[in-house]
């Protein structure tokens, strides 16, 4: 193993715990920033470009038919292939935390549409599921298994917020372990089925899961209910006959008590386990090699790298698998008061010397970052670490595609050209500037409803004065579709009583005085 330090020279504040890395054709992409995406990269997905030990981030584009993908931290993700030996694949992304700390229960498919020297375009599609749909969660894992020519996804573990009926003022934002149910998800028919197995008694999160063939191995993890890190090694075997699937669980010896560990694949049957925590105040510096052969698993301790003093003495660390046997590690800078949101970054290469040299040629053209504010995270808190999973058949032997840093970014196709609403008429081929502030991209504004989504200002019939006012004022905006719902949720404003001026009292009329002669005449007539 070799450890190499890299310098983040652009958007380094995005490199925080909770991010995810995706590897397409040897290129590594970052996903999962803490805040909402900026206009410079509305997709929230970046290419990680590493050259001469410098790490740079470059925006990635989405196709026009893509759905909106919020930045999600601590989701479960894995690769999905049409069959175990297929070369093309796409990523499955489920759950995670939004920048508002809401939990997502949605599932997305991310695939590579086109790749040139100037731009890379993804397609993101949201999938609808039926049946026993997993609740919103984070810190869980998802894997794909193959059996009898069919394939399903296996979802397990994670944490969620306390149910509404059990919340109090003091525990309103508290999280609990999800039930230890195993979910089988058939994406072909869009259905989910949950299984309760007697061997799985406690909920787990931030564990490691590795899939090979029809088997998923679950290692380590943290249980909030017992505040323990499980030493058990679970073997889930999935059988997919013509009828109902069969799920069995076996507890194997030789497990490791660890949480928030990272696993990376170095060959078809070998994986390396690195990082994580033994306890709340003890990092795990040891490394292990995991070998999967003939429905058997073997875990042996391996020689780790020469950790730097900064890594040995830091209170927390985080990272993610870059693919191809490499891991991106980050540790916070000691003095955050001088440089806020600053971290040191290292690339750990787990292959041999010759393989490392070949891998270096590839990884130097790919680099990625993550966005999560460590101010949210407590040292040695598993909920602030990322949960990693891998598939034994996701390893590609040779891939030498490169990315030229000197190529100018072409922003002609980006998240600006989405269909923001049913009446959206923004077309990249026919669009002309509508506002004086527009140049080569339409003006967009973020709708604050739910997880948030971007809409075109022109489609919302916003005047230029109102658009400028919204961009300068720190207020929430709701699009035409959600503005009525937001008004219904608002507390009515207290009516102001209008003061009425008091009425002037009527003056008493003075009695009319009669002359004396008239009075005498009246009395004389009265007594006559």
Automatic annotation (TrEMBL):
Residues given in the record as Zn(2+) binding sites: 420, 424, 447, 453, 456, 459, 479, 482
Subcellular location: Nucleus
Pfam families on file: RAG2 (PF03089), RAG2_PHD (PF13341)
GO cellular component, one term: DNA recombinase complex
Recombination activating protein 2 PHD domain ranges (all copies): 415-492
Keywords in alphabetical order: Chromatin regulator, DNA recombination, Metal-binding, Nucleus, Zinc, Zinc-finger
Principal location listed in the UniProt entry: nucleus
Alphabetized SUPFAM superfamilies for the sequence: FYVE/PHD zinc finger (SSF57903), Galactose oxidase, central domain (SSF50965)
InterPro entries the record matches: Gal_Oxase/kelch_b-propeller, Kelch-typ_b-propeller, RAG2, RAG2_PHD, Znf_FYVE_PHD
GO BP of this protein: chromatin organization; V(D)J recombination
MF terms in GO: sequence-specific DNA binding; zinc ion binding
PANTHER family in the cross-refs: V D J RECOMBINATION-ACTIVATING PROTEIN 2, V(D)J RECOMBINATION-ACTIVATING PROTEIN 2
Family to which the UniProt record says this protein belongs: Belongs to the RAG2 family.
Protein name: V(D)J recombination-activating protein 2
Source species of the chain: Leptocoma aspasia
Gene name as annotated: Rag2
């Amino acid at each position: 193993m070799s450890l190499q330090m890299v310098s983040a020279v652009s958007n380094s504040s995005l490199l925080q715990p909770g991010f995810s890395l995706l590897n397409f054709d040897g290129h590594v992409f970052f996903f999962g920033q803490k805040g909402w995406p900026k206009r410079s990269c509305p997709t929230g997905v970046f290419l990680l470009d590493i050259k001469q030990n410098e790490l740079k981030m470059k925006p990635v584009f989405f196709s026009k038919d893509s759905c909106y993908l919020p930045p999600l931290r601590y989701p479960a993700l894995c690769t999905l292939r049409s069959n175990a030996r297929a070369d093309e694949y796409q990523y499955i992304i489920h759950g995670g935390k939004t920048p508002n700390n809401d939990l997502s229960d949605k599932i997305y498919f991310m695939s590579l549409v086109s790749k040139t020297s100037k731009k890379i375009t993804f397609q993101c599609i949201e999938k609808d599921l039926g049946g026993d749909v997993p609740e919103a969660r984070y810190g869980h894992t998802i894997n794909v298994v193959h059996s009898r020519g069919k394939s399903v996804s296996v979802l397990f573990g994670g944490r969620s917020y306390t149910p509404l009926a059990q919340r109090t003022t003091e525990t309103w934002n508290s999280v609990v372990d999800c039930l230890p149910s195993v979910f089988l998800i058939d994406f072909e028919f869009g259905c989910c089925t949950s299984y309760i197995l007697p061997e799985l008694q406690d909920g787990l999160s931030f564990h490691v899961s590795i899939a090979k063939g029809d088997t998923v191995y679950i290692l380590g993890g943290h249980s909030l209910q017992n505040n323990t890190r499980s030493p058990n090694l679970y073997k889930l075997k999935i059988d997919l006959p013509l009828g109902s699937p069969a799920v069995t669980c076996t507890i194997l010896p030789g497990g490791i008590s660890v949480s928030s560990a990272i696993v990376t694949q170095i060959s078809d049957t070998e994986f390396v386990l690195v990082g994580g925590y033994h306890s709340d105040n003890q990092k795990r510096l040891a490394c292990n090699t995991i070998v999967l052969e003939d429905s058997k698993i073997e875990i042996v301790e391996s020689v780790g790298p020469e950790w730097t003093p900064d890594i040995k003495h830091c209170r927390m660390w985080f990272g993610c698998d870059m693919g191809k046997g490499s891991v991106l590690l980050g540790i916070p800078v000691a003095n955050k008061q001088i440089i806020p949101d600053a971290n040191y970054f290292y690339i750990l290469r787990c292959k041999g010397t010759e393989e490392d040299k070949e891998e270096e040629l590839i990884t130097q053209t790919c680099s990625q970052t993550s966005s999560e504010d460590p101010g949210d995270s407590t040292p040695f808190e598993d909920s602030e670490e990322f949960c990693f999973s891998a598939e034994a058949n996701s390893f590609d032997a040779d891939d030498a595609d490169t990315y030229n840093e000197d190529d100018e970014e072409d922003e002609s196709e980006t998240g600006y050209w989405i269909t923001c609403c049913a009446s959206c008429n923004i077309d990249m081929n026919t669009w002309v500037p509508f506002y004086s502030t527009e140049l080569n991209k339409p003006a967009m504004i973020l709708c604050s409803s739910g997880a948030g989504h971007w809409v075109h200002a022109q489609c919302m019939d916003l005047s230029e004065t109102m658009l400028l006012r919204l961009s300068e004022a720190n207020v929430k905006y709701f699009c035409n579709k959600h503005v009525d719902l937001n008004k219904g949720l608002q507390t009515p404003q207290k009516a102001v009583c209008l003061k009425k001026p008091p009425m002037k009292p009527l003056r008493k009329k003075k009695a009319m005085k009669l002359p004396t002669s008239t009075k005498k005449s009246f009395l004389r007539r009265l007594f006559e």
